[in-house]
Amino acid sequence: MGITRNAAETSISVVTLDFPPVNALPAQAWHDLADTITEAGRDPATHVLVLRAEGRGFCAGVDLKELQADPDRAAIIGVNRGCAAAFGAVYDCPVPVVVAVQGFCLGGGIGLVGNADIVVAAEDASFGLPEVDRGALGAATHLARLVPQHLMRALYFTASRIDARALLHHGSVYRVVPRAELDEAALVVAREIAAKDPRVIRRAKEAINGIDPQPVHRSYRYEQGFTFELNLTGAADEARQAFLDRG
User: Fold this and answer.
1) Closest CA to 61 of 5, 14, 4, 129
2) What pairing do the DSSP bridges indicate for beta strands 126-128 and 118-122?
3) What distance in Å separates the CA atoms of residue 96 and residue 94, rounded to the nearest whole number?
4) Dmax of the chain from CA atoms?
């Protein structure tokens, strides 16, 4: 349980999220994930990284119970910094990151997937940002990397989800496979990359990031400023508590 890293095959590092029941990560886990991905990317033996999760869903975002239990706001600061670090670690990883998504991918999960290089999804995968229903903002930066601008806004304001097949249509999901085949499908792509000269692949990743029109780090941190504002007004506390009371 927690965050683990192993070498599934030569040159392929696999990082796994495992936080039952829904992979909602506490503040420290986001920092740990950032450290794990950064360490794997710096390892010269790593030619490609696969990010995956155990359980019925890839990631439900942050642990709202932790936020509600903390009266002095240290948890919200920790979560915001941790999410920024984890999303940034995926984006800045010196090697390509292939993400394997099953079930739900919500909130912070969108931040991870949106910053990845290649997305492979199970047929049951769905993606969404319920932030406005939780009194928070953020990861519109990353949702905008998965869908066109007006669809992003509709999904964001309604807190609705989009399925893997629709993202395949938009070109942001590379393959959609039966859930039982998800891990192998991610490894198939990873093997193809890992077989290439890592000197070239690492420079290719750096070059592609260098021509990216979207400043993902600055854009996400800008969004987070409004999350702090909502916490100061009390709107965030009320929304989180209403969600927790429902279930």
Assistant:
1) 129
2) unpaired
3) 7
4) 53
8: its two tokens: 């599934």
| Residue 154 CB contacts under 8 Å (≥ 6 apart), including other chains | 160
Hey, what are 35's tokens? 């450290």
Chain centre distance of CA 238: 25
Distance CA 37, CA 92 (A): 9
CA dist 50 and 246 (Å) reads: 35
196-232 pLDDT, tens digit each? 999 999 999 999 999 999 999 999 999 999 988 888 8
Contact present, 28 and 78 (Cβ < 8 Å): yes
The DSSP 8-state label assigned to residue 59 in this structure reads B
Q: Which of 91, 98, 30, 35 is nearest to 59 (CA)?
A: 30
- Quick one: 2-180+204-246 is in which CATH superfamily? 2-enoyl-CoA Hydratase; Chain A, domain 1 (3.90.226.10)
Give the three-class secondary structure for 106. Answer: strand
Q: How confident is the model at residue 194 (pLDDT cuts 50, 70, 90)?
A: very high
Higher pLDDT, 49 or 69: 49
- Print the SS3 string covering 117-143: CEEEEECCCEEECCHHHCCCCCCHHHH
Q: How confident is the model at residue 247 (pLDDT cuts 50, 70, 90)?
A: low
Q: Model pTM?
A: 0.95
